[in-house]
Amino acid sequence: MRERVVVLGPPGAGKGTQCKLLAAARGLLHLSTGDLLRAEVDAESSLGQQVKAVVARGDLVSDDLVLAIVRNRLAIHREGWLLDGFPRNSTQAAMLDDLLADLGQPLRVALQLQVPEEELVARLLVRGRCDDSEVVVRRRLQIYARETEPINAHYQARELLKCVDGLGSVEDVATRIGNSLDEREHGEETIC
């Protein structure tokens, strides 16, 4: 079965690291929305010019524009993929559902990396930007809890959400993610 995976989790949960490992281990296309946006700008595509103009104004890239970029990549890649950094809110999750239905590429699973808040704060302070303070880090986590965390319910209602413990070594977490995907394939899954 072709794996189509959305990887969710708060800042500091290790999504980017785990996505790179998972993509390499399973031959999946890793779609990081941040990387996709930068690639479109670098390629000076029509979408890239729109992104560049939005960023130059200091605005956030709209859901529609992000979705158009994701559509372009998924329309030409029919094999397995994983999305990192998208969707970020309930509106985007619904838009992604419609896009995937239109492309005939149903989502297989939404993996939620779970890490306690204090561990997230510690991770973000260690690897963060020089201007990151504990107050700034906790604010980012509050924004995540308010805007992004509610999409867990969206995927749980569709019986697609799987929670994975994000504590431990990078290798241990990667093993748990792989086991979680294999359980789903064999009908032995445990949903959050």
From TrEMBL:
UniProt pathway: Purine metabolism; AMP biosynthesis via salvage pathway; AMP from ADP: step 1/1
A biological process from GO: AMP salvage
Pfam families recorded: ADK
Reactions catalysed according to its record: AMP + ATP = 2 ADP
GO molecular function: AMP kinase activity; ATP binding
Cellular localization per UniProt: Cytoplasm
Keyword list, A-Z: ATP-binding, Cytoplasm, Kinase, Nucleotide biosynthesis, Nucleotide-binding, Transferase
Residues holding AMP: 33, 38, 59-61, 85-88, 92, 129, 140
Entry's EC annotation: 2.7.4.3
Binding site residues for ATP: 12-17, 127, 168
UniProt-annotated stretches for the region NMP: 32-61
A single cellular component GO annotation: cytoplasm
Superkingdom, taxonomy of origin: Bacteria
Function (record text): Catalyzes the reversible transfer of the terminal phosphate group between ATP and AMP. Plays an important role in cellular energy homeostasis and in adenine nucleotide metabolism.
Recorded family membership: Belongs to the adenylate kinase family.
UniProt cross-references to NCBIfam families, sorted A to Z: PRK00279.1-3 (NF001381), PRK14527.1 (NF011100), PRK14531.1 (NF011104), PRK14532.1 (NF011105)
Domain notes: Consists of three domains, a large central CORE domain and two small peripheral domains, NMPbind and LID, which undergo movements during catalysis. The LID domain closes over the site of phosphoryl transfer upon ATP binding. Assembling and dissambling the active center during each catalytic cycle provides an effective means to prevent ATP hydrolysis.
Complex formation: Monomer.
PANTHER family linked: NUCLEOTIDE KINASE
Protein's recorded name: Adenylate kinase
Lineage of producing organism: Bacteria, Bacillati, Cyanobacteriota, Cyanophyceae, Synechococcales
